[in-house]
């Protein structure tokens, strides 16, 4: 579990104090139940959005441990040593955020009431995730493990929303510690009804919940009574809202966080989601539901595309205002809020963002053996300009391009997928409306290939599994490794292509990826596309007469 304390950790430690106050810089999760998906899969997605997180695919092999063993716990964000917990006799293999039983866990930080942070606890949110993945057989089992751990060892982090899923069930659990004088945490977990999807994005979303439905709703015994004791709630138990008590809404929480949920919902059920447009604009208190029924069932590619969203086609569309510049860039660099003439303004915070370390779409399928049924579709950097590569639950090692230890945040490396994808996406931010078309072409080509090959890979692995499960794992490992290598090589070539095509603001003509030459064998004359009319009008408005072409004055007689 230990992550080395390096400069990345020191920087993160500094930033963490700000993050708890303003958690809107972090992550987005989409949750999809079996009957909301095209093929009966369950899905959860995640974007690990951090300015200092190096994108890599974590791996823990299955292991047996001697009786009496202890496990050191280090805070996931910083590497700070927090203490020890009792180790279990056997731990499961974990690939990223999915284990060999197809249990997957993701998170978003909502922070909540600052006074409830308990710095004496041992279990931080990241350790909860990865310890639970090493121990859990099902989603319900993971919830039990996580809540038992904070009860025994204390909860170190601030408020957190967790997505917890297996091939049959999808749950959202929200948890917050009880302050330095009260060990443990208060929490509530709700099973998403089959046929629905949910989402969360750095704001607590569980409001009221069914107190008597133990099959579909689990909660700590003091989740209501503690809120009453602290003065956060007064009223009948049936009307108690976890989110309102422990993470009250403000405008920032709505616009930076809930707006992302709304945009995700809008892509699967626009008519229903549009009822809450006034809410995300801060003009209504009518909150969105925890889950929504999609108009059409969705698949892995649909979830991937939701993770690439910048509010396109909505009043919050990031390509439509002056901040997008002449090339319609849907990104805004930090700070998130800023002032002009003593008035505070803000940048939109979309699902896809430039500072993502890694993201994934976890797909779980109950009709296959676990090593084959589980696929962690994994990508690094900005989800919008990344490729989701299939990592099966049964693989025995992580592809070199994504492996932990292959590169770091402060040293560029052509071997590390994180740096290759960042190189390409950072080029695109300067000529986005043009370059994204080239990026999308290669991205689609690769993901189309994965989708087309998927059934054959599944069937071959299933046949091998019946002969020898280890043969199936070796086959899947080789497949994921090969596709990772091919993907990174393709992206390196894409970056080289973009560099030539858009050199110095020009546009060098090409056909089918080959740059054109003139009749003498030299480079064809480039195009000079310039800017659009709107941009030129803004330049004229700002520059006035300074840039206006004028008649040359005649000589005086």
TrEMBL record:
Keywords in alphabetical order: Dipeptidase, Hydrolase, Protease, Signal
Catalytic activity: an L-aminoacyl-L-amino acid + H2O = 2 an L-alpha-amino acid
Superkingdom of the source species: Bacteria
InterPro entries tied to this protein: Peptidase_C69
Stored Pfam families: Peptidase_C69
GO terms of biological process kind: proteolysis
EC numbers for this chain: 3.4.-.-
Entry's Gene Ontology molecular function annotations: cysteine-type exopeptidase activity; dipeptidase activity
EC class of the enzyme, as a word: hydrolase
Annotated signal peptide: 1-26
Family: Belongs to the peptidase C69 family.
PANTHER family: LD30995P, SECERNIN
The protein's name: Dipeptidase
Species of origin: Marinilabilia rubra
């Amino acid at each position: 579990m230990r992550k080395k304390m390096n400069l990345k950790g020191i920087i993160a430690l500094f930033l963490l104090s700000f993050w708890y106050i303003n958690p809107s810089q972090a992550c987005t999760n989409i949750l999809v139940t079996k009957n909301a998906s095209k093929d009966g899969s369950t899905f959860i997605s995640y974007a690990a959005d951090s300015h200092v997180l190096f994108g890599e695919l974590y791996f823990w092999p299955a292991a047996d441990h001697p009786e009496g063993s202890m496990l050191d716990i280090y805070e996931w964000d910083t590497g700070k040593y927090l203490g020890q917990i009792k180790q279990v006799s056997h731990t499961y293999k974990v690939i990223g955020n999915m284990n060999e039983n197809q249990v997957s866990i993701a998170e978003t930080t909502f922070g909540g009431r600052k006074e409830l942070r308990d710095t004496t606890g041992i279990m931080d949110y990241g350790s909860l995730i990865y310890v639970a993945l090493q121990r859990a057989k099902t989603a319900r089992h993971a919830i039990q493990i996580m809540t038992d751990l904070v009860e025994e060892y204390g909860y170190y982090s601030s408020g957190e929303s967790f997505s917890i899923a297996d091939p049959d069930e999808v749950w959202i659990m929200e948890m917050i510690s009880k302050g330095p004088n009260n060990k443990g945490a208060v929490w509530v977990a709700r099973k998403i009804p089959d046929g629905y999807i949910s989402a969360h994005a750095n704001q607590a979303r569980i409001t009221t919940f069914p107190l008597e439905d133990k099959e579909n709703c689990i909660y700590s015994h003091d989740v209501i009574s503690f809120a009453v004791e602290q003065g956060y709630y007064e009223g009948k138990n049936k009307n108690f809202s976890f989110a309102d008590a422990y993470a009250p809404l403000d405008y920032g929480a709505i616009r930076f966080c809930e707006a992302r949920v709304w945009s995700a919902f809008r892509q699967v059920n626009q008519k229903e989601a549009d009822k809450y447009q006034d809410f995300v604009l801060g003009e209504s208190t009518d909150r969105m539901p925890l889950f929504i029924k999609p108009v059409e069932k969705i698949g892995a590619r649909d979830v991937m595309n939701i993770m690439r969203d910048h509010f396109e086609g909505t009043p919050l569309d990031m390509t439509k205002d002056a901040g997008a510049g002449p090339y319609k860039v849907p990104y805004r660099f930090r700070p998130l809020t800023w002032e002009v003439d003593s008035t505070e303004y803000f940048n939109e915070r979309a699902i896809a963002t430039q500072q993502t370390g890694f993201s994934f779409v976890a797909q779980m399928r109950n009709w296959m053996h676990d090593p084959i049924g589980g696929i962690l579709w994994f990508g690094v950097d900005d989800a919008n300009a990344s490729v989701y590569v299939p990592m099966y639950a049964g693989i025995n090692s992580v592809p070199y391009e994504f492996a932990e230890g292959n590169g770091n945040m402060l040293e560029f490396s052509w071997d590390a997928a994180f740096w290759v994808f960042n190189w390409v996406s950072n080029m695109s931010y300067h000529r986005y409306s043009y370059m994204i078309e080239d990026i999308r072409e290669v991205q689609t080509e690769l993901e189309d290939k994965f989708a087309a090959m998927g059934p054959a890979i599944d069937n071959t692995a299933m046949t091998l599994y019946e002969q020898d499960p280890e043969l199936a794992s070796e086959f899947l490992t080789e497949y994921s490794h090969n596709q990772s290598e091919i993907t990174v090589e393709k992206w390196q070539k894409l970056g080289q292509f973009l560099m030539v095509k858009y050199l110095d603001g020009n546009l060098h003509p090409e056909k089918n990826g080959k740059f054109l030459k003139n009749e003498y064998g030299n480079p064809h004359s480039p195009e000079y596309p310039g800017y659009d009319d709107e941009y030129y009008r803004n330049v004229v408005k700002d520059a006035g007469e300074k840039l206006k072409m004028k008649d040359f004055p005649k000589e005086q007689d």
